[in-house]
Amino acid sequence: MNQLGGQPIFILPEGTLRSTGKDAQSRNIMAAKAVAESVRTTLGPKGMDKMLVDSIGDVTITNDGATILDKMEIDHPAAKMMVEIAKTQEEEVGDGTTTAVVIAGELLKKAEDLLDQNIHPTMIIKGFRSAKIKALEILNEIAEDLKPGDVETLEKIAMTAMIGKGSEAAKEPLAKLAVEAVRTVINPETKTIEKDDIKIEKKQGGSIDDTELIKGIVIDKEIAHSGMPKKVKDAKIALLDCALEVKDTETTAEIRITNPDQLQAFLDQESKMLKEMVRKVIASGCTVVFCQKGVDDLAQHYLAKEKITVARRVKKSDIEKLAKATGASIVFNLEEMSAKDLGYAGLVEEKKIAGEEMIFVRECKNPKAVSILVRGGTEHVVDEAKRSMDDAVLGVIASIEVGKVVTGAGSVELELAKRLKKYAEKVGGREQVAINAFAEAIEIIPRTLAESTGKDPIDILVLLKTEHENGMIYNGIDVFNGKSMDAKKAGVIEPLKIKTQAIKAATEAAEMILRIDDVITSKTPSMPGAGMPPGMGGAGEMPEY
Fold first, then answer.
1. Residue after which a domain boundary falls, among 313, 346, 379
2. 326, part of any domain
3. CA separation for the pair 291, 289 (Å, rounded)
4. Are residues 36 and 140 in the same domain?
5. Based on the domain organization, do 127 and 240 belong to the same domain?
6. Within-domain flag for 169
7. Is 97 a catalytic residue?
8. Structural domain range at position 114
9. 507 in active site
């Protein structure tokens, strides 16, 4: 709305809400801070869990930041940006989602203090950007190279990712499984690793200690026919992306049968076609068939007579993993099927796990896809164990790809804050204030860890800052004893990529929110209170998360 000669001019439709300037900024910052605060207490080995109950009553218990924010039904647009930080961190690295969101929330909190001192948002953004570039430089300086084949360090990285999760009690054997899985699927030529080549399957029952690595693939399917072998040694495996059944005609067709002989001839012809398909499969010399599409009952019968094991309607992703694990080629046309398309596995067997049949393809030669079967006493335990295994696997992958690691326990953030404050002194001016604010925001990570010890966090932080000033750059917080510790000696190691990605994502999200000085919310006429002034009918408020 605008004024011209005392007459109001309406630019926006009736019912549209608008907040501008500091009001818009403070609302956005408040929403983002609330999201960060909701996950902050989950940080670290002594982080608390959250119980999330959805609209249909399903319960999720976790302290994984990405899972918490994904399950929360967030509606506020600025709060949704915080969720995006967690999703990006999860996709890029797999771990450090809480760290990224908490840093973003603290950056906005510090920015709000600067806005109250009448420092312009563009000056704050400029300072934050300079601090981010410098922080990434410092991280690269203090990071240590990861030697190829350093299994011990990789296991420490996997254990650090699992600490604080439900599977912490069995972290050592699980970390070994995660490292072995990643090292198995690494591409020797390009030195790259595809996360999808490691299939993490979960089944409740047993205990977390029963989790196992299968040098092959686990498929959540059962063998198609009761007469087929349930266990096949030295299996020759065929992978089919074509149906073993008579197809319907692609064009609309009608078959007229006027007497029983014609019906019998039709059935005989169909049987003959199926026999021909089965003959081609048998001729290849395979002993196990995984088919992506359907397998006719009659075809199953013929194959069972030949002692060939078949699984049907196997997912496309599983067929692709089987090809990588067994060395088989996927067959799209039975006419071209031959012995050279077959793959090998030392053992293919059907086992009943938690009351459901699963097919295990084991002992593959040089598999480039593997499976980890995660077990746990209850559904909630196995869900959390799977999430921690995901974090461990992704952490190991990130370490190998970047080839650099840093110490955890808040030691990196303390060293980063110390060096950024020294850098700010050289910059000077108002930009210096923003860089100092950035350095203080980074300290939220060690401060949160110190709070989780149950002891006075100020005493712990003062001691650690003194130690860092004296060159003890690996010293962090021992959350179990509320003391200082050498994180390197304690084996608290994290991939460098966790820290760099968290700082990049948090800074960029904070910059984006700080740039917004005008929020226009459209309301449809059907909404209660639409078109009413703020405070009337409930439409005057920004949507809450």
1. 346
2. yes
3. 6
4. yes
5. no
6. no
7. yes
8. 19-144+407-521
9. no
d(CA 417, CA 445): 11
Q: Which of 42, 67, 98, 211 is catalytic?
A: 98
Residues 138, 23 share a domain: yes
Q: What length is written for the chain?
A: 545
Task: Return per-residue pLDDT of the chain as tens, 545 residues.
Answer: 455 555 655 566 666 666 666 777 778 788 888 888 888 888 878 778 788 887 787 887 777 777 787 777 777 777 788 888 888 887 777 777 888 889 988 998 888 888 888 888 888 888 889 999 999 999 998 888 887 678 888 888 888 888 766 566 677 888 888 888 888 888 767 677 888 888 888 888 777 888 888 888 888 888 888 888 888 899 899 898 888 776 655 556 666 666 676 566 656 566 677 788 888 888 888 889 898 888 888 888 888 888 889 888 988 888 998 998 888 888 888 888 888 889 898 889 988 887 788 889 888 888 888 888 888 877 778 887 888 888 888 888 888 888 888 888 888 999 999 999 888 888 877 788 889 999 999 989 888 888 888 888 888 888 888 888 888 888 888 888 888 888 888 888 888 888 898 899 889 888 888 887 766 666 654 444 444 344 433 333 444 44
- Token duo for residue 438: 């950035």
E strands, 55-99, are 59-62
Q: Among all chains, which residue has been given the structure tokens 């403070």? A: 26
Q: Pairing relation of β-strands 309-311 and 330-331?
A: unpaired
- The answer as to whether 60 is a domain residue is yes
- Give me the DSSP letters along 274-295: HHHHHHHHHHTT-SEEEESS-B
Please check whether residues 228 and 311 belong to one and the same domain. yes
The domain total for the chain is 2
d(CA 336, CA 447): 65
For residue 193, being part of any structural domain is answered with: no
Active-site entry in 97, 99, 211, 507: 97
Query: 220 an active-site residue?
Result: no
Q: Are residues 447 and 334 in the same domain?
A: no
Do 247 and 134 share a domain, yes or no? no
The answer to whether 98 is a known catalytic residue is yes
Assign residue 244 the CATH number of its domain.
3.50.7.10
Percentages of the chain per state (helix, strand, coil), in multiples of 5: 50, 20, 30
Provide the whole-model pTM. 0.74
Tell me which of 41, 60, 62, 64 is the catalytic residue: 64
Among 49, 95, 391, 478, the active-site one is 391
Whether residues 425 and 510 share a domain: the answer is: yes
Q: Are residues 28 and 119 in the same domain?
A: yes
